[in-house]
Amino acid sequence: MSEAAPIRPIPADQVGEWAYEADVVVAGFGVAGAAAAVGAAQSGADVLVLERTGGWGGAAAMAGGFIYMGGGTPVQKACGFEDSVDDMKAFMKAALGPGTDDAKIDVYCEGSVDHYHWLADECGVPFKMSFWGEPGWEPPADDGLQYSGGENSAPFSTTIRPAPRGHIPQMQNKRESAERGGGYMLMKPLTDKAAELGVRSEYDMRVQALIVDADGRVVGLRAKQYGKDVDVRARRGVVLATGSFAYNNQMLESFAPKMVNRPAASIEEHDGRAIQMAQAIGADLAHMDAAEVAYFCDPQLFTRGILVNGRGQRYINEDTYPGRVGQATLYENQNQSFVVIDEAAYEEGASRPTATPELRHRPTWVAETVEELEAEMGLPAGALQSTVEVYNRHAEQGVDPLFGKKAEWVKPIGTPIAAIDMRGLTGGFTLGGLRTSVDSEVLHVTGDPIPGLFAAGRCTAGVCAGGYASGASLGDGSFFGRRAGISAAKN
Ligand SMILES: Cc1cc2nc3c(=O)[nH]c(=O)nc-3n(C[C@H](O)[C@H](O)[C@H](O)COP(=O)(O)OP(=O)(O)OC[C@H]3O[C@@H](n4cnc5c(N)ncnc54)[C@H](O)[C@@H]3O)c2cc1C
């Protein structure tokens, strides 16, 4: 590490002058930082947020806006869905593992309806009481609810009562201005609320290292502002909320090598710095190999076809959450994937509304028979033919005994037939980070909380340990961010 940016903790007695001071100092003004700031200010603390860029927002303000909430929220009820805390827990523990932090999932689910009311009623985040039920990464318009984790498809739907839990803040001009989508409509009210509560913010302030007193307590942060080192004192606590390590190739090589050079749905400020700063004082880590993996194709297309790997074999039910498709493609199928679809199904899918027209790829190969298509794709003779023959044999009866795709999407594949080359078309962001308690205290490798240090968002390991559901990131970032602020304020 260069001398210009020391990552080692700085002893408090070496600080000459405190340039800024507050009860609670928050690093990063994305979703976790904003929720922490509001939580701390509502608990009576004087709060200062330090943000590296020129404004609030982070990845969150660019996000589609899914927030994973359930257990019977007003939107779920208004849209006619029954949900319970137990069903939500069961789904999250099954889908977001293996190795989930069950204590975290328990408090997250038990507090979810309250979290909804905090966001909607106290912070003013708008939610429209309407449901989008077609395949897609996001709703194409301003609907407030969608299945966002594969709850209503195999392998979960038969054992856990499904409910949609992807809540999206109501957005305006989504088509005209994607930047003002659901994520913006989460961040604008949250940061307005922070300002209303008197939260101060300093921009162009790049946090570099923790300041620690002689007892090992975190009492501040050193940051670089306009090329100068400045020291910021935190009277009660520091909250780290600077995002993932999706843009730190060295950390990716060490912890999540399949994600090297594959960042998506993140921003280049996600450089893992906060994780390393806390590691330097003994912080523990969790789930550093986990990642959200997007599959860059419009689900309106591939749900109506089949997905095959580099050997021409199906590998997943195509009606599941597209993030599960991404993980299965990258982790289990060497990032080799093709969408195989007949002309009628392609035309139907392409005519349906979508939030992601840019992912509606034209076919790479088109053929009159499966045999011809297989040859054009360069697959061994018979590989794709046997896949399509088996699929069609069962599809005639409307079933998919191999992967359990729902009957509504199971139709024999006819001709003309096409394939879209999806090899290599995945990307995403890391889910691992600092190990924290349910109250967002950063835990030392001994298991004890590090005095004065709290964290939330993608610099921490949240509710996802391996699997992912859309909304889990803005969900746990806002939920545990708020708790981080409250804990720091009470510290
Ligand atoms: C296009 C897109 C779509 C997405 N859709 C969804 C979705 O629908 N649902 C969902 O749950 N997630 C979604 N995500 C992911 C989600 O936005 C992030 O995972 C989430 O914002 C992480 O929260 P965070 O607070 O940890 O990080 P951020 O929201 O990115 O905030 C981190 C902040 O810290 C700042 N920072 C970084 N380093 C420093 C430093 N050294 N000093 C000071 N400040 C620093 C950054 O500039 C940033 O403002 C999407 C992301 C993108 C880009």
UniProtKB/TrEMBL annotation:
Region (Disordered): 151-179
The UniProt record lists the keyword Flavoprotein: yes
Domain FAD-dependent oxidoreductase 2 FAD-binding, residue spans: 23-472
Cofactor(s) in the UniProt record: FAD
Keywords assigned: FAD, Flavoprotein, Oxidoreductase
Keyword Oxidoreductase attributed: yes
Biased composition (Polar residues): 151-160
GO biological process: steroid metabolic process
Record-linked Pfam families: FAD_binding_2
GO molecular function, one term: steroid dehydrogenase activity, acting on the CH-CH group of donors
Protein name (database record): FAD-dependent oxidoreductase 2 FAD-binding domain-containing protein
Organism in which the protein naturally occurs: Gordonia neofelifaecis NRRL B-59395
